[in-house]
Amino acid sequence: MTQSLNRRGLLIGGAVVGAGALAAACTGNDPEESTPSQQSVAAGGDNDKAGKQVTIGFSAPAADHGWIAAIAKNAAAQAKQYSDVTFRAVEPTNDINQQIAAVDSLISAKVGALVLLPNDGEQLNQVARKAMDAGIPVVNLDRVFPDKLSYRTWVGGDNYGLGVAAGDYIGTKLKSKGVSNPVIVEIQGIATLPLTQDRSKGFADALKTYGFSVTAKQDAKFTVETGNQVASNLLQAHKKIDALWNHDDDQGVGVLAAIKQANRKEFFMVGGAGSANAMREIKAGGLLEATVTYSPTMASSAIKLARLIAQGKGMTDLVERQVPQSITLASETVTKENVDQYMPLGFES
């Protein structure tokens, strides 16, 4: 278990350094070595031909989490594809007031568009609205602002669908095994976030169609350490488990370590987000049988959309002349049968 946690710590350290480098200055368009599992950019098209020069501001939480680190890397990598884009990333932070101040600095700099992944959508709603009122279109990434006037376009994953996919996988397998009254354990991310609540609702709704329900659930804050602690507590509380759903593959590193330490093998596990670490576990054929995607490539898409909006363009594949108000990514279930197809999109935990 210690080895897994230390490896994670080293990865986090590298991610933080990478994110800090992004924030140090405006990014030009110099080529940069990329890691396939960390950076994904979209292929070029008619809309990718050089147009009006725009500056895109970017703000996200601190990269103390593999998924967040990949968000920052994907955003920077996509911006580098365009000779007409200057990418201006502010220092990532988990402090609400510091993120508000950082976004304020981008507003004062009069950037052409702003891609913003807030630590908390409700708490950053006002500063996002301030940007919109100043004529700066905001592309709201992932954690949504409650006020639709605070963003031009939202792009993110299907959290409800993620829960449904996990519930369908577990429900189908338990039904096929003839299990009745199963013990189903759920480990959430941050329980207070709407995205977590959507995931749990989707999971519960899907299980209900099979006549099942969640036996116990607890949140693990999206961290390896808390994931390890919460899993250990749930394993001690339930001497027999039939299935476990863990919302987040990053915290899943700690969850898996706890399971291995307890030497529990009577159940199967489903993850969430689609990390490379989880996909390797799935391919190896262990307790973790599946994960449901929530890809950080959404940051690449957010940069593309911000550029189009700032340049007054629409999406060439659509009839409409303007970029849509919201774009929801599909939640795809990754299993041993299709894991090789999804591995290039995995991010390192």
From TrEMBL:
The protein's name in its UniProt record: Substrate-binding domain-containing protein
Family (UniProt): Belongs to the bacterial solute-binding protein 2 family.
InterPro entries: Peripla_BP_I, SBP_2_dom, TAT_signal
Taxonomic superkingdom: Bacteria
Subcellular location field: Cell envelope
Region feature (Disordered): 28-47
Domain Periplasmic binding protein: 56-313
Swiss-Prot/TrEMBL keywords: Signal
Keyword Signal included in the entry's annotation: yes
